[in-house]
Amino acid sequence: MDLAERLNDPALFKTQSYVGGAWIGGDTSFAVDNPANRQKLAEVADVGEAGAKAAVAAASDGFKVWRKTSPFERSRILLKWLDLIQDNTDDLATLITAEMGKPWREAKGEIAYGAAFIEWSAHEAARVHGETLPVPAPGARGWTIRQPVGVVSCITPWNFPAAMITRKAAPALAAGCSLVIKPAPETPLTALTLAELADRAGFPRGVFNLICGDASKLGPIMTGSPEVRMIGFTGSTEVGKLLMRQAADGIKRVALELGGNAPFIVMDDADLDAAAAGVVQAKFRSGGQTCVSPNRIIVQDDVADDFVERLQARISEVKAGDGFAPDSDIGPLIHDEAVERVDALVKQAVSGGARVVVGGQPLADELGGSFYAPTLIEGSGFDSEIARSEIFGPVASVYRAGDEKHILDLANDTPYGLAAYLYTRDIGRVHRMSEGLDYGMIGVNAPMVGSASTPFGGMKESGIGREGGKWGVEEFTELKYVLLSGVNS
Ligand code: ADP
User: Domains plus CATH for the chain?
Assistant: First the structure.
């Protein structure tokens, strides 16, 4: 497949923003690069404040139509979008690999994962319903209805260029909300193709809007405009806090999926091979650039040597390379600054007494892009920088700890609370520890927790709200109560 040729095909790939059913440009533009080789892929229009305002106005008009559309019709259009995405999986995956770097087969997996949220939400559209309630006054009737929140602004990150959009857009659309979406500047091409496919699916004009440009200009309009009633965001805790502050002024609803510091706990009764395989699967997906990536691998003292040895064998086999090469297990990091940040964390850990077991250096010279070696270190302290901050790179860091209580205290000693992993075969430990971990999602002997039917989200500074399952759609609804007095004879 010739990427340059495909990127020049105006039928699918766009570099303008999609507003009110039309493609709009801007006065300026920004470049999108391939992190595997630093070549420029495209120049994308920045729609600026005027474009953001136009998108909010279009979404406001779109909402008036969409909220009245039958849920069955909403479902049909969502399923059409799903079909189109599935039909174009290879091209979408190619864009993800080109602009974000993850291996092509993993990018295809992301399309399937993201598409599942559209399928689930399409069916859920027809299941949004209220209840009748007992009320005190004789003869009176009370009931609840669930209505769409309104215009929703969605701001998404680059690590899952497709799925972070579908995971928000699909339930919001199912609920009857209209959208203004802003993808990350690193990965607008996948997002714009999703918009092209939404256009073909036939959402009414203004229901689906997607704008690209400078976040500091677009953001305040997306959060501050009175027509916008909710902000859905996935990204850093720092930006999440900023958006929450901006939303506070208009008492807007927020759904925030923020950073994590996932503990991956290996107890002494665990299947150590399964646990080592689980670390590799969860850690190196997207090159370690996921918010649910194991950040602190906490192993009980008595099995730690054995476990490190098994993990070393597996991580030594993980191959970094261009995402289009079939034998690459991980691609590049998103840009050179990410490589520098990860390298600094590793160097700091080593100077604090940690030992590099595998890897531990950038691979830019050998591979020509923003690559970092798949790495295993051990021996950092729980108060070290690498233990306290989100690594967001292909570095597995192992810690040793004593008993169950000690491990739980250490695991919870962080402002974050997104995902945690627990490997044990003791059912008592499963209950005690899964209940004791202050995390929104716990994978017990399971390295991949997310799916379209289950609630994804965190506690503490990892966020507010849940995506997926019935909860994902519910987030985008208002609960209204109606009381009708005196209908008895
Ligand atoms: P990362 O550090 O992983 O890039 P960010 O939280 O910075 O994560 O980015 C996630 C998304 O938030 C991106 O779409 C980015 O453009 C957007 N963003 C960053 N800063 C702002 C801001 N001030 N207002 C609105 N959106 C922002």
Answer: 3-258+462-480 (3.40.605.10), 262-451 (3.40.309.10)
